[in-house]
Amino acid sequence: MNTDLLIIGAGAAGLFAACQAAFAGIRCVVLERRSRAGIKLLMCANNRCNFGHLGSADELLAAYGEPVASFLSPAVRAMPSTAVARWFERMGLPVKRNGQRLYPASERGDDVLHLFLDILRERQVPVVYHCSVEDIQRIEGGFRVSSASLQLECKRVLLAVGGCSYPKTGSMGDGMIFAERLGLKTEAPRAGLVAVECRQDDALNLGRGELELPEVTATGAGTPAIPGNLVLEEGVLRGSAVYDLTRFLARKNLPLKNLTIDFLPGKPLDGLSKRWEMLCQRHGDNDALKFNGMGLPPRLAQSLAQYRDFPLSALKAYPVMDARMRPLREAIVTVGGIALEEFNPKTMECRKIPGLYAAGECLDIDGPTGGYNLEAAFATAALAVQGMKG
Predict the structure, then answer these.
(1) How far apart are CA 300 and CA 203, in angstroms?
(2) pLDDT tens readout for residues 131-184
(3) I want to staple 159 with a disulfide (CB 3.0 to 4.6 A). Which of 121, 133, 353, 358 is the partner?
(4) Domain span holding position 236
(5) Number of domains making up the chain
């Protein structure tokens, strides 16, 4: 055998697993199809790297929802976000809290990536770049992993290849391909945490220049009201309210229908009506000033003012006509992947193929915005290595 463990994928899960294996004394090699590691990690929160969310394990699991929560329970309870933060600090990387979200103190994903790579260099763990794995075969005592340029044999394999979103980062859906070849069940990939487009003539199409509304709720047919922020730019709706709504739809296999935005959550319509009457007395027919007085930013207020007889109730349920989700390749996370039933959630080892492990987004696991997806990647990676030690 060339090594004890081959980790396929040098993203968040693969790098964290490699660090854990190095400290555990497990010989490993990391194979990465791209020319550098952690490309998608650097995209997290615009390179600010929101790596986790404060809260108890029960609170974190409630945010994931079922069926993800039940599968992730052993991993998250063993290493919640606070434990990841403590690990970073022990390794010399200060962390900070912003609300309920955890970041490196520098708010630079590069510092997290450099920490991982420094550990692997110091522990002499090889990372092989430009190495696109083409096949995984079971052999006596382990596996043979082949690419166009090399072939390695190992006792164990950890799949950490990510999902199908942002394929330019190296997440190409390889995990599903390998799983299906090995006779494992997969779940169809769907776009989770993805932006939504509106019509060109929609009032939310404000043109160039980003506009953020810090607190809204988004609702679709068959969904609850999802709170969060809303970011508007050139007819595209982003932000946690929209992202988490699209993840909910993907998890339920529902289409995006009847998307509405509550611009003023927590403010009942009857109270808004009284304020509108006061603003009408003050500003007359100038609807832009009245919408602004209701609490909307000037650019959005000006856009809404173009529509005569705009009903006040629409501020609580603005209909985004013909809204459509952006494609899977632009999603922050993939819903779907290798079926959870194929792996033991207590060890992350394949039930049918001993020695085969998986971690992170290549499995059918995903979370809302706010650090949950990196938490899932780190927690499952750590549990997989722990399972190998056992």
Answers:
(1) 8
(2) 999 999 999 999 999 999 899 999 999 999 999 988 888 888 999 999 999 999
(3) 358
(4) 196-325
(5) 2
